[in-house]
Every structure is written in structure tokens, then in C-alpha cells.
């Protein structure tokens, strides 16, 4: 009985103190900016062409303490898209990695058509005629 009373007293004493919790939030604004410039890119020999794939060149990757070389690799091609490789970009307070991305590719026929439209004689105004309101 004495031990149960002692246990009850200990539980009540502990309950009387407010519970405290420590929360730590670390927000690192601009944490992807590296203060040290990346080394020059390494020359990699691209392996033979692979049908339906594009070559993604190797690049330096920052691991928090130093740069590590990430080797180039093939990636499956996407129809109507062209791959724009990633690059280290200079920013005010250091360097930031811009990931490679797929961009919509212009089709050659559309480019020819647009070029033809821009130089079409029907849309050309002779010199001096626009000011006179003739075009």
C-alpha cells in the first residue's frame, strides 16, 4: 500500500509540472546557393548514339561540402521536345544549379512557314508609304 501511495504521489507531482517541448525549425533561405565556384566541366566522351535517347552531359554537383562529378548518361527522348542541359548559374551571392529541362521543340515546317509569312511581299510596306497611311 505504501508503494502504491508513493507511486500515486509521484504521478501527481509530475502532472503538476507543465509539459514542455522543444521545436527547432531551420529555414535556410537561399540554401541552394553555393559560395564557391564549381570547377571547370570535365571532358566526357559521349558513347555511341542510342535510338530514342538523348545524352545528358555530366556536371558538378554540390554535396554540402564539396563538388562531386556526376557522369553523363542517356535519358529517354520525348517526342516534340528537346533537352536543354543543366548549368551552374552565377547569382549575386554565389552559384546556383539550374536543372536540365525539356523544352518544346519547334518543328521545321512551322519555322519555314513563319519565316515565309514574315517576308511575304503582301505584308511589305514600301519605304515612306506607312507614314502616308497607304499601308
Question: Explain this structure to me?
Answer:
The model is unreliable at 17-30 (pLDDT under 50). The strands form four sheets. A three-stranded antiparallel beta sheet has the order 1-8-7, with no helix packed on it. Strands 2-5 form a two-stranded antiparallel ribbon. It has a two-stranded antiparallel ribbon with strand order 3-4. The chain has helices spanning 2-16, 108-118; strands spanning 33-34, 53-56, 59-62, 67-70, 73-76, 81-84, 87-91, 94-98, 101-104. Strand 7 (87-91) and strand 8 (94-98) form a beta hairpin. It is built from two helices and nine strands; from the N terminus they run H-E-E-E-E-E-E-E-E-E-H. It has 135 residues and is α+β, with helices and mostly antiparallel strands. It has a domain at 32-123.
Care to count the β-strands? Answer: 9
Secondary-structure content class: alpha+beta
Count of runs of 4 or more consecutive helical residues? 2
Estimate the mean pLDDT confidence.
Answer: 75
* Share of helical residues: 10-25%
Please give the order of strands in the largest beta sheet.
Answer: 1-8-7
H/E topology pattern: HEEEEEEEEEH
User: What best-fitting shape do the alpha-carbon axes yield?
Assistant: flat
- Describe the largest sheet: 3 strands, antiparallel
pLDDT < 50 runs, ≥5 residues: 17-30
Radius of gyration: 32 Å
Amino acid at each position: 500500500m505504501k508503494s502504491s501511495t508513493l507511486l500515486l504521489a509521484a504521478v501527481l507531482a509530475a502532472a503538476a509540472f507543465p509539459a514542455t517541448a522543444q521545436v527547432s525549425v531551420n529555414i535556410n533561405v537561399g540554401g541552394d546557393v553555393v559560395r564557391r565556384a564549381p570547377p571547370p566541366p570535365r571532358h566526357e566522351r559521349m558513347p555511341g548514339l542510342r535510338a530514342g535517347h538523348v545524352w545528358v552531359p555530366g556536371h558538378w554537383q554540390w554535396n554540402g561540402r564539396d563538388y562531386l562529378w556526376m557522369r553523363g548518361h542517356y535519358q529517354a527522348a520525348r517526342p516534340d521536345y528537346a533537352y536543354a542541359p543543366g548549368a551552374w548559374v552565377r547569382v549575386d551571392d554565389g552559384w546556383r544549379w539550374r536543372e536540365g529541362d525539356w523544352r518544346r521543340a519547334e518543328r521545321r515546317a512551322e519555322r519555314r512557314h513563319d519565316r515565309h509569312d514574315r517576308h511575304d511581299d503582301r505584308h511589305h510596306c514600301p519605304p515612306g508609304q506607312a507614314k502616308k497611311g497607304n499601308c
